[in-house]
């Protein structure tokens, strides 16, 4: 049975059991402050479990793309070193929202595994929750009794809270679970040791294949448990492990989920995969084929590699793959990007985003490979210098601070530093390195540390967003909770009628005030969390149950929604001018400016930018009225031609925003008429990543300020130049400046010629070598020309020039070719630069250094005389 058939059988089975089959949610989470990635199948249904949204159906099944590389669920370091851990994996799942419970969930699982897939019953074991006295939780006797009708009682194992009580996180829905384990060992191995002894003991052939979670409780922030209003079922079956079981393999990597990718790596690298766990080459191949899946899906869902947040995680995964292939597969050129086509062929039918975004994914990965391989090459030079310094000082341990700087600042893999050091008979200061890592983690935690208390519910009222129609409203606080962070103590509130738009879709959240007759509180930010619109205020009202008046900052809202509406017009104009391959890949919409990222592989020309501006401003002048479809079936919206963004999760009903021919699915706030935007001006266009361009622009008030500022500058220039023809006056100045520069350069050369003769006669004989140490006020370019000439003309020489040109200390060192093996210009200049509080470098024959301390030139001069 192929992996495609295995996946389809699962979906077909649950469809026959009246489950709605839904597509996978994006692997990257855009609007969830608690998670960066979908790390389990239930993530997209979290609001259903919490009661914030009504399920689209009482029974649902799907296959969900998951990523476990950060936080509590982090499998990254295990990947490649065993047969079954992955970064990206598929989770097959079936769900019941207040419909069936334990009995049916257990029966479905058993029937599918044993009758549909044909797994021998004697290979299966199940676990049930044994209870936990500390939380007054009893043994899950119901699950045990239901299992008894399917499997022998001696194959039902009690499991502790760690293994058999599933929790979404520190707080949230949770409940006992029942795991199904499969024993894939040979009959001979089974005869020696019972599978009972190996369940949940990390045996590579006795593995958990399915987890049935029975959601009964909600974990509050204070750690206590409360019963959920309804009982739910949440199951997750590891697709890769299931394929391993059904295809009779002993490793996930031996299944057809991975073998086509492995075959391509073998072809490109010339290395043969043998499947040996400890073999570094095989580990590297497993890392590569795992990581290319994670990175490809993340990019296809809209997350580009970057230096922060989710983008940093994706970059780290990709760089781990590049590092392993560089070290153990001898791949010194980009090649991972060539695996994307194989992945598309394997999984494109089930996950069309791979096909749709294939070119972008390929280009981004190739660009990242190019960049990181250069980082490695540059890092090798730095490591070599560090090793030479360590050996020169008769030390055997590389200093932790510099190794960590290589890792943290320059992105050079620390394990590669270890390997190179070991080859030279050195080690790194492991304890010191770990201490530096811990310091960094503590700094990061301190920046983001936040203690969130439980919600206090005041009164059961409807909680609605009214901000599309009004920016002020009478309201009540329905619930509040305290929040403590590095800036102090604040309160999050949920309002019965909130005009505050919550951050989302690129648009910043609203700010404003919340006030009543006696008190006023600043609304610092508004976000959406688990379906709730949450506003942060700077205190707790004395009477939180009073009537309040909520007011949005009107100026900021006006400018933000103007910028948001203009991004829609910009998107359409870009597609008209550049082509329909253009798709939005990210945006920021605030009151001051807008940023728009889009797929395009070339730098825009000045003509294209001007045409885009012209098209957008034409739409603004047309005074096109907003057509808002506040709740329209997604199918109908798409049929009308609405743009849907890849990587976004849409419901059955959506909001569509239309300005003439511009139609987009969007939840943001917008102007009622394009004329309200005022004027649109692109302020910059550049590269955001491989295949991604970025436009920054302004509109409305900021656009008006921009042109007023330009006008003011023109007037001031005109006054300075004493001419109304500013352009011609500046052209004339440039011509005069060019002429003067040529005269100055000629003068410098004449002066330098005069200096050369004097400097030649100033060399001091030291044995069979010659040393020149000279102070000058010549500029750096002249000094460089002279030093290169002296290097050639004066054999066996070291030339050291100390310059104070323009009041800045500069040291230049030249070493003649016949001495370059014994006297390194770079080492000499680095030593002398300490005296001027500076640094620099170069090659063995020529090096320069600048500094901050001009007075230090005298010390450098005296030190140089002793070379």
From TrEMBL:
- Annotated ranges, domain Alanyl-transfer RNA synthetases family profile: 1-709
Q: Does the keyword tRNA-binding apply?
A: yes
Q: What is known of its domains?
A: Consists of three domains; the N-terminal catalytic domain, the editing domain and the C-terminal C-Ala domain. The editing domain removes incorrectly charged amino acids, while the C-Ala domain, along with tRNA(Ala), serves as a bridge to cooperatively bring together the editing and aminoacylation centers thus stimulating deacylation of misacylated tRNAs.
Its keywords, alphabetically, are: Aminoacyl-tRNA synthetase, ATP-binding, Cytoplasm, Ligase, Metal-binding, Nucleotide-binding, Protein biosynthesis, RNA-binding, tRNA-binding, Zinc
Q: Which InterPro entries match?
A: aa-tRNA-synth_II/BPL/LPL, Ala-tRNA-lgiase_IIc, Ala-tRNA-ligase_IIc_anticod-bd, Ala-tRNA-synth_IIc_core, Ala-tRNA-synth_IIc_N, Ala-tRNA_ligase, Ala_tRNA_ligase_euk/bac, DHHA1_dom
Cofactors: Zn(2+)
A Pfam family annotated for this chain is DHHA1
Cofactor binding mode and count = Binds 1 zinc ion per subunit.
Q: What is this protein called?
A: Alanine--tRNA ligase
Q: Which reaction does it catalyse?
A: tRNA(Ala) + L-alanine + ATP = L-alanyl-tRNA(Ala) + AMP + diphosphate
Which class of enzymes does this protein belong to?
ligase
Question: Would you say which domain of life the source belongs to?
Answer: Bacteria
- Which Gene Ontology CC terms are recorded? cytoplasm
Q: Per UniProt, where does Zn(2+) bind?
A: 564, 568, 666, 670
GO annotations under biological process?
alanyl-tRNA aminoacylation
Q: What is its EC number?
A: 6.1.1.7
Which molecular-function annotations from GO does this UniProt entry contain? alanine-tRNA ligase activity; aminoacyl-tRNA deacylase activity; ATP binding; tRNA binding; zinc ion binding
Q: Which Gene3D superfamilies match?
A: 2.40.30.130, 3.10.310.40, 3.30.54.20, Bira Bifunctional Protein, Domain 2 (3.30.930.10), Threonyl-trna Synthetase, Chain A, domain 2 (3.30.980.10)
Its localization reads: Cytoplasm
**Which family does the entry's similarity section mention?**
Belongs to the class-II aminoacyl-tRNA synthetase family.
Functional description taken from the UniProt entry: Catalyzes the attachment of alanine to tRNA(Ala) in a two-step reaction: alanine is first activated by ATP to form Ala-AMP and then transferred to the acceptor end of tRNA(Ala). Also edits incorrectly charged Ser-tRNA(Ala) and Gly-tRNA(Ala) via its editing domain.
